[in-house]
Design goal:
By secondary structure, this protein is of the alpha+beta class. The protein contains 19 helices and 10 strands. Strands 1, 2, 3, 4, 5, 6, 7 and 8 form an 8-stranded antiparallel β-sheet that branches. The chain has a two-stranded antiparallel ribbon with strand order 9-10. Strand 2 and strand 3 form a beta hairpin. Helix 9 packs antiparallel against helix 10 and helix 16 packs across helix 17. The chain is elongated. The chain starts with a helix and ends in a 19-residue tail after the last helix. GO terms for molecular function: phosphoric diester hydrolase activity. This is Phosphohydrolase.
């Protein structure tokens, strides 16, 4: 008979050890902190047949225990964790109001003394205050009896929490019994595994938080360089994830098989946050070039001064002519060697008419250059020729009395930009930011779950027809994630109101342009269809566009969209 009992005991012990090993493996693979904490408590209850339990974590200031999970099967109580029910109990402080150690609370004692406390009956136990337990029992009709309270120590032997079990139940009878020595050893082993798993998860989350903070630091530096791109590095990853989720949930079409897990989502999020990190190398005066003549300042003001000098010279010539008409001798004395001879009344009138015409011409040319300088509209070949005509029409003297062409070659080049405010050389500088982004990201030793970040982030200026940059990739050479980010980057730029060279476009205008991009092979057609069909544009607009930009959209009129 004794051999049978021994064999049964050995089998039970072996089964519980197997269970403990399985629990350890499950804990090490869990990524969500709340679910992990819940698994720890439920596993401890399971291997000890406990009716209830509580899991506490040490607070950030390491001066108290905070309730995280509370379960009681008999009472049907489930608080904290994944239950969705908050725990309203206050923290358990390590010291009382006088600063003395709070050793009367068994959970605090276990944490501060790093010692397991195994109590057969809370009502008869000495040295601890169970008045709160008695009050709880009175209010619920429950009878708290056996307690097993175990500190959770991590790999550095630091207590990070406390695991407390209540009322061990005898499996056969359901009778409340004390926690056995075997129960205690198993829970101590479990609590150690759990503490290490929890610490590892917390360390991973802290490192991820630190990593994202460094990314935000780079983006902040870019934003500080240029207030006009502020928010772009924030909004593009948001829109990227919106479109990615829409693609993930689609059940029809070529992208019906596209799916992401949490690691995939995190990888894409990081790529979105870093997609423009190379802009930290871009000269600020190019990024902030609000007008065609803008360098460190807008040179249109210098042209205004030259136009005023032209008006002054024209007026001086008029006054000289008028002076000669009234008093030839005085005019000769006051005039320069090139002063005009006295004219007749008809000649004087003709001079005044010519003067008025010249002023009108000067003012018309000045207004034209002001309009051309803005760069908000495409410039026709006729307008470009007019810039060159103005450059040769006038001459002016600088402060050193040197006669100069009205516009120098650099000013002619900038004012003749066909669209936008950037010259070809400046556009090349701007485009170089994606090359810098790729080079910077490829230098980092990415872990396995983030190894595609450089490809995702570096492909948002590529085109489906292979005419993009920097690598000229075609659609089939790009990941779906990179194609998603390309659409997000374009749509954010179209709708952004903080760009110096253009106003933020309305929703319908932006979708019309995006549709044209779809038709000319710029963006992925299948993702474009999802963007429209699942109203991703509307969700984004409701959160990030100004109300005046959100107009009525007729999807049937969007170019390239297959209704």
């Amino acid at each position: 008979m004794g051999k049978i009992v021994t064999a049964d005991l050995q089998a039970s012990t072996f089964a519980r050890l197997e269970q403990l090993n399985a629990i350890g493996a499950a804990l090490s693979s869990e990524r969500d902190i709340s679910t992990l904490l819940e698994k720890i408590l439920l596993a401890a209850k399971d291997i000890t047949h406990a009716d209830g339990g509580t899991l506490y974590l040490v607070t950030e200031n390491e001066q108290a225990l905070r309730f995280e999970i509370l379960r009681n099967d008999t009472l049907g109580v489930a608080l904290g964790g994944t239950s969705g029910n908050p725990i309203g109990f206050p923290n358990l402080p390590y010291t009382d109001e006088h600063g003395a150690p709070n050793n009367s609370m068994v959970a605090v004692y276990a944490a501060t003394h790093v010692e397991t406390v195994n109590i057969e009956d809370a009502y008869t136990a000495q040295g601890f205050d169970f008045s709160g337990t008695r009050l709880y029992d009175e209010n619920t009709g429950y009878r708290s009896r056996s307690f097993l309270t175990v500190p959770m120590r991590n790999h550095e032997n630091v207590v990070i929490g406390v695991l407390q079990l209540i009322n061990a139940l005898e499996p056969a009878s359901g009778k409340v019994v004390p926690f056995s020595a075997a129960d205690q050893r198993l829970v101590e082993s479990l609590s150690s595994q759990a503490a290490i798993a929890l610490t590892n998860r917390q360390l991973i989350l802290q490192l991820e938080g630190l990593f994202e903070s460094f990314i935000n630091l780079i983006n902040l530096a870019i934003d500080e360089k240029s207030p006009y791109t502020r928010g772009h590095c924030e909004r593009v990853p948001i829109l990227t994830m919106m479109l990615a989720e829409a693609a993930h949930t689609t059940t029809t079409g070529p992208l019906a098989g596209f799916r992401m897990n949490e690691a995939d989502r995190y990888e894409l999020k990081i790529a979105g946050l870093l997609h423009d990190c190379g802009k930290i190398t871009t000269p600020v005066h190019v990024v902030d070039k609000a007008t065609k003549l803008h360098t460190l300042y807008d040179r249109i003001d210098a042209l205004d001064v030259r136009f005023e000098l032209l008006k002054r010279d024209a007026e001086i010539e008029l006054l000289r002519s008028q002076l000669a008409q009234r008093d030839p001798q005085l005019a000769v004395a006051a005039a320069s060697p090139t002063a005009p001879e006295p004219q007749s009344a008809a000649e004087a009138e003709a001079i005044e008419t010519a003067y008025a015409a010249r002023l009108a011409q000067i003012e018309a040319d000045r207004e034209f250059l002001h309009r051309a300088n803005i760069g908000s509209e495409a410039m026709s070949p006729a307008d470009q020729q007019r810039v060159r005509d103005i450059a040769s029409r006038y001459r002016w003297q600088n402060g050193s009395a040197e006669t100069r062409d009205f516009l120098d070659p650099d000013e002619i080049e900038n004012l003749s930009i066909r669209a936008g405010t950037l010259t070809a050389a400046e556009r090349e500088i701007i485009n170089h930011h994606i090359v810098a982004t790729i080079r910077m990201l490829e230098q980092l030793p990415w872990p396995r779950h983030l190894r595609r970040v450089p490809e995702f982030a570096g492909g948002h200026h590529e085109r489906m027809d292979g005419k993009g940059y920097p690598k000229g990739l075609k659609r089939e050479e790009m990941s779906i994630q990179a194609r998603i980010m390309a659409i997000a980057d374009i749509f954010e730029a179209l709708t952004a109101k903080d760009r110096p060279y253009k106003p933020g476009k309305t929703l319908s205008e932006s979708l019309h342009i995006l549709g044209k991009f779809r038709e000319n092979g710029h963006i992925d057609p299948d993702l474009f269809d999802i963007f429209i069909r699942q109203r991703v544009y509307r969700d984004y607009a409701n959160q990030y566009l100004h109300p005046e930009q959100i107009d009525t959209v007729d999807e049937s009129r969007i170019p390239g969209y297959r209704v």
